[in-house]
Design brief:
Two copies of one chain form a homodimer. Chain A contains four helices and 28 strands. With 518 residues, the first copy, chain A, is mainly beta. In chain A, strands 5, 6, 7, 8, 9, 10, 19, 24 and 25 form a nine-stranded antiparallel sheet that branches. In chain A, strands 11-12-13-14-15-26 form a six-stranded antiparallel sheet, with no helix packed on it. The N and C termini of chain A lie far apart (67 Å).
Chain lengths: 518, 518
Amino acid sequence: MEIEEKRRVIKVQCYTLKDTINFYMRPIEGLTVLLDLDTQQVIEIIDEGKNIPIPNAANTDYRFSRIKKNTQKINLLKPISIEQPNGPSFTIENNHLVKWANWEFHLKPDPRAGVIISRAMVQDPDTGKMRNVMYKGFTSELFVPYMDPSDAWYFKTYMDAGEYGFGLQAMPLDPLNDCPRNAYYMDGVFVAADGTPYVRSNMICVFERYAGDIGWRHAECPITGLPIREVRPKVTLVVRMAASVANYDYIVDWEFQNDGLIRPKVGLSGILMVKGSPYVNMNQVNQNEYLYGTLLSENIIGVIHDHYVTFHLDMDIDGPSNNSFVKVNLQKEMTSFGESPRRSYLKAVRNVAKTEKDAQIKLKLYDPSEFHVINSNKKSRVGNPVGYKVVPGGTAASLLDHDDPPQKRAAFTNNQIWVTPYNESEQWAAGLFVYQSQGDDTLAVWSDRDRAIENKDIVLWYTLGFHHIPCQEDFPIMPTVSSSFEIKPVNFFESNPILNIPPNSPKDLPICKAAASA
Amino acid sequence: MEIEEKRRVIKVQCYTLKDTINFYMRPIEGLTVLLDLDTQQVIEIIDEGKNIPIPNAANTDYRFSRIKKNTQKINLLKPISIEQPNGPSFTIENNHLVKWANWEFHLKPDPRAGVIISRAMVQDPDTGKMRNVMYKGFTSELFVPYMDPSDAWYFKTYMDAGEYGFGLQAMPLDPLNDCPRNAYYMDGVFVAADGTPYVRSNMICVFERYAGDIGWRHAECPITGLPIREVRPKVTLVVRMAASVANYDYIVDWEFQNDGLIRPKVGLSGILMVKGSPYVNMNQVNQNEYLYGTLLSENIIGVIHDHYVTFHLDMDIDGPSNNSFVKVNLQKEMTSFGESPRRSYLKAVRNVAKTEKDAQIKLKLYDPSEFHVINSNKKSRVGNPVGYKVVPGGTAASLLDHDDPPQKRAAFTNNQIWVTPYNESEQWAAGLFVYQSQGDDTLAVWSDRDRAIENKDIVLWYTLGFHHIPCQEDFPIMPTVSSSFEIKPVNFFESNPILNIPPNSPKDLPICKAAASA
């Protein structure tokens, strides 16, 4: 597309706000305006959708004030709340240093990354000392390619952090709905395009979560004669932001457990990006015609797309240096004749990654591994390397062709895990400048240099992925879909670090009255 | 092993209770007694571990009454609780029919399966009618192979439901620790080996969960000029049991969401099965020697093992008949020359499974699919088939050789998903009789008959898997590790079924005082 090159251009999409606030469900399909941002000149108006009606506004509003009038049946639930009559157990010093249970970390709103966790340290239960775990962790980039190659859609391959600013798009959180009671809210201070500073209030919340879950437990069965039933409730600390990147809402959580585990989690809600269609029923569609998505309602197609969220995890296991990445591969081992009635077992084989290419990981169900970051200079009491492992979750891989322009720009999604040596300039997986980038400054390019990563200050990159084939339940607004992965101690502590948390007893529980009866 | 065949035999493992209640950490390694259960005769005493010391009792006790004396540092948390001043929103009729929000289902304690959910129905928000989703769902079998082929270990390949009884091993739940306040407790009534009935009190709990999470949300960014921030809290219903199969504790949850989603979840806690070792430090181990696990503490090896939990899900989407299994495969499609600036996109290709072999599914990250169960006779308003999908999670695949005797017996783990036509006799994935079975009555055998499954009453089987390489943090008792999958509506409802749940406001929150100050 020659007219688009070497200019700062943007493609304007058109919707109508008539009769609904949910204009995303009323696309003026095929109408795209190419605009030069420097000259403010309209370069081109493309209208490919003249025969496609604008979908009806009916049933698109989702505001509570409007929806009450509808006939949808529901049994209302009685009030339920996470209550802490003595207040939360965390403190936040100087509006950035969070201390909770055995954790300490810095928390910072960032215009591009959203939330940055830094200097995360956990207390050693034996010595009482704070130990380094992660120097810095944040969502480095997102990639959201839509799966429709037609004129009005092919370019919809968003990189929400580098293009829009994941933090800039984080709107104020709604107390009691976005975050429970006793949450602490932190403002972001950002700079507008004209250089004016502004405050984004309530951009991040911090709260403790008790979800009725179990930290650890064991009961003995009667045959042992031991009257043992020891159970500990699980309480965690959550840092949250919610970025509304136009239609989509990304809920980003960093959850800390007192057993040393960190769980980054991404929830997707908000509104689909849909396509206008002449069809009102699938029975009108020729068997050979492909719609690029699901007919969600009359004249509305939810186009198939992926979401990738790439995390930058600058691990500092017991300090910045001497960290190494170890692949602990589980391999099928056959027994030799006569060795055992068993023919096979799984054997753990450790491989320390020497260079970056050793750490370009595609996850394989039938060739599984654990992925450890260890401090090569430190052993536990019985001689194991101390470390943390990344436990994958929410895996979806980008299947786009590696030579496809959007995939070149998003080549950081070519693997699920990468490890690079720390380099101050390598923070943003799609490169520092993302708009109209060609993919020459991505994580994939850096990693292909194949630098040494053993016994270094290293950065681990993990990508959460989602394939999204829309369904009717996503219309007109989507129930949250979540995925998470874990950063988890592995021979980091000498033993279970939460042996001495006390069980709950009735005397710990608050005494609560209904608010209405107060 | 000739002396073991055609007899009812058991292998007795030996531990010492001296100086600790956590005898699992004091194995008398290599001492195995083969016992004839009918004659009560000792057939053989094998002692292969004469040079292996019994590990020390130090640091093995995990009881709160003992641990307090230890020096482990901890910052105690203030009380935190899920509070419902007006009580819970579910009802349980006749001690088995659970009604909550838009759900109704039957709940039954079962000696073998543990918890059985049956006749799960969800209300249609448009018509108010209850619609069938699942006729019956339960944990059909477990498979826990240890990865050590030596004499004292090769046979440790447990099937906890068929061998021990997942329900029989479910011990009474600990109120306020296993389940939060306002939980309902259900007893199990079982039969002892001598025919005597007995009551297992508090075997199952039912409770509502509010974890600070978000059901759906959207905020508009300022440029639209729309002052919109609509957020709904997520409240769910959980059914839980905790089975202590000797050392291990399995926490089984069935979580119901009012958006129609069902999330079966398995948590692992309890105590490792460990192996005695002559070593006290890894520096004593010859580089060529393989330990079959991790040295967790002096003389204690946590042996590598897997856990597989296979769920029987008798889906009845809008009724028992006319259900079909559809694989919606996402395939990379290359564009033709000149078609688009894009070279590739993902295309959804639907394939209805005709027979069982079409539905023997190994999950593939780079060949992804959605897995739907649809009612082939029913379409939504715009013509989509109504259905539910199974969303995999917690995937680990058994890598053991298919001809290995334990894997033959557990051939139901050869795939992650299977679909069979409903057959009353096919409830237990390892076969009705599991002890000393040879694998001739497993799900794999049934499925290989390759019966028709289109437009039938069908059963979907899903296996959650865990590879477990133990680490020091698992000693002397393990922090819970959890995994789950989802059973989720896909074009089952005409639109988002929870549009009209109200947001929280301060007037909904209880007023709570600390118990101590009451």
